[in-house]
Design goal:
Layout: E1 2-7, H1 13-21, E2 24-30, E3 37-42, H2 43-50, H3 53-57, E4 60-64, E5 67-78, E6 85-92, E7 99-108, H4 114-117, E8 121-125, E9 129-134, E10 143-146, E11 155-157, E12 168-170, E13 178-184, H5 193-200
Parallel strand pairs: 1-4, 2-6, 7-10
Antiparallel strand pairs: 1-3, 2-3, 4-5, 5-6, 7-9, 8-13, 9-12, 11-13
C-alpha cells in the first residue's frame, strides 16, 4: 500500500498546531541507520488510509522527496473527541531484519461448519489477531482461518492454523492458545407440560346458584 509524505521543517507544539490548521498531520519516521525524519501528510488522505486494514498490518510504500521508503505504521495519536489525527509514527523497514507484528485473522467457512450449520452453535472468536515474526517480504496482510471443519464442542488452537511460509507465531509463553471455539446457543426455556396445559385450558364456567321456589 502506497502513500505520500512530505518533509517537515518545523517542530514543536505551536508549529504542529499551525500545521493541523492547514489540513496536514505531523509525523516522524525512525529506525534503521538514518536519523529520525520529521514528515507531514495530508490529513484527509491519511484518515481514509487508516480505515483500511492493510495500512495497519502490512509493509507500506512511503513516497518522500521522490524516493520510495519501506515503512511500518507504529503509532497513531487521535484527538480525544474530534475526528482528527494529531500525530503519526512510522518505522523504517530493513529487508534483512525480521519483524514482530500483529496480523489480523480472517475467519471463513462458518456457513459450512457442522457446528454452526446443524448443531445450533456459534463460532466464538477468542482472538482476532496474532503476533508473528517474519522477514518484511514474508509479512502477510492477514491470515485465513478455515472453520468449515468445526464441530460441536470443538476448538481450534494456534497450532491448528496454517501459517504462510516464513512466518512463525509469537505466543508470549502461552502454550498453544485457543483461537476459536464452537459454543452451543442456549435454547429458549419452554414452560413445564402441566403449566402449559393449565394455561391452554379454558376457564370452567362458574356454578349457577339454585333459585327460590
Amino acid at each position: 500500500m502506497k502513500f505520500v509524505a512530505f518533509e517537515r521543517a518545523k517542530q514543536g507544539t505551536g508549529a504542529s498546531r499551525r500545521l493541523r490548521i492547514t489540513g496536514r498531520t505531523p509525523g516522524i519516521v525512525y529506525g534503521g541507520a538514518a536519523e529520525p525524519q520529521l514528515i507531514e501528510l495530508d490529513h484527509n488522505a491519511l484518515w481514509h488510509a487508516l480505515k483500511k486494514e492493510a495500512f495497519h498490518s502490512s509493509v507500506l510504500d512511503m513516497e518522500l522527496n521522490g524516493a520510495e521508503n519501506k515503512v511500518l505504521l507504529r503509532d497513531v495519536q487521535m484527538h480525544p473527541y474530534k475526528q482528527q489525527i494529531l500525530h503519526i509514527d512510522f518505522q523504517r523497514v530493513d529487508a534483512t531484519t525480521k519483524l514482530h507484528m500483529k496480523v489480523p485473522l480472517h475467519f471463513v467457512g462458518e456457513e459450512n461448519s457442522p457446528a454452526i450449520k446443524t448443531d445450533g452453535c456459534i463460532a466464538n472468536h477468542v482472538v482476532t489477531e496474532i503476533d508473528v515474526l517474519c522477514l518484511p517480504s514474508d509479512l502477510p496482510e492477514f491470515i485465513t482461518v478455515d472453520l468449515s471443519g468445526l464441530h460441536k464442542g470443538m476448538s481450534l488452537r494456534l497450532a491448528d492454523i496454517s501459517l504462510p511460509k516464513g512466518v512463525s507465531a509469537v505466543t508470549h509463553g502461552k502454550n498453544n492458545p485457543v483461537v476459536v471455539s464452537a459454543v452451543v446457543v442456549a435454547a429458549a426455556e419452554t414452560p413445564a407440560p402441566d403449566a402449559a396445559a393449565a394455561a391452554a385450558a379454558p376457564a370452567a364456567p362458574a356454578a349457577k346458584g339454585k333459585g327460590k321456589k
